[in-house]
Amino acid sequence: MFADAYEVVKQFTRPVVISQRLANGQVTCGIGSFIIVNADGWIATAAHIVEPMRTFTLHQQERSDYETRLLQIRQDQSLSSSQRKRQIANLVRNPEWIVNQSYWWAMQSPAVGATFQVNAVADVAIGRLNNFDVSGVAGFPVFKNPTSDPRLGSSLCRLGFPFHSLTALFDEAANNFTIQNFSPPPMFPNDGIHTRLAIVPDALGAPLAKFIETSTPGLRGQSGGPLFDVKGEIWGIQSRTVHLELGFSPKKKDGPREIVEHQFMNVGLAAHVSHLVELFRQHGVQFASV
Asked: Residue range 250-275: average pLDDT?
C-alpha cells in the first residue's frame, strides 16, 4: 500500500546522530530522524531532538559559574584551610553536565544548524542547516492542508531509522567524536490507522497542540521523521509512543511467585502538520502544500 509513497518520502528523510560526553566521562550516542523541507537547507524534526542543544548551552554556563566560584574560593586569602575545603565541598558539581556535543546531519562535510525555531508543546522544530548539500535530494515534501485532519480509520505510515545501536568514543587529542563501525543506517517504515486526535489543552481548556494518534507505535529512531499517507504527503512529525492500559491483568507463575502482568496497547503520536505550517509561515520558510 505504501510502496509508492515510500519512494517519495525516502527522498527527503534523513538520520541525525547525536553524540555527547558527560562530566563523569560517559559518552552517549543516539539516532533520530528529520525531513529536508526545501532547497535552501531548511529542515523539520521533533523538538526533543534539538532540546539537547539548549541543555548543552545551559550546562556550559553552569560549568563556567562553578569554575569561577571554585577559583574565587581558592584565591580568597581570608579563608582558613578548613573554611576553604568546606566551601568547595558545598559547591554543586553535576556529574551529568554535557561537556562535549556533536550533531551529525547525514552529511560527509559538517552541516551546522542555526538557531532552531521550536514549538515545545507540539514537539516540532525547524531550522536551516548551513553548508547543507541538497544536490542528492530528488524531491521535497508536500504538506497537507493544516486546517484538515486525516480521516479516522485511514492508513498512515512513519519512516525513520530504528533498531540501530551506536557506540561513540571521544578523542581528547582531536577534540571530536568517532562512531565505531558506522555506516548510514537503512530506513524502516511502519504503518497503522488513524485512531483519533489527541489534544493538549491550556489551563482554561483551549487547545495548545494537536497530535495524530495511530494504532501502531512509533519506534526509537523514528522521532522527528514524517507521518504520511498513501500519496506520500505529510500529515505530521513523529513525536512519541504512549502506552494505553487495556484493563487486562493476567497472572503467571514465576517459580514460587505469582506475577500480575499489566497489558498495554502502544500507540504513536505525531505532531499535526498545522504546527509545522505555523512555524514555516512565521519564519518565511518556503514549502509545498496541497
From this structure: 84
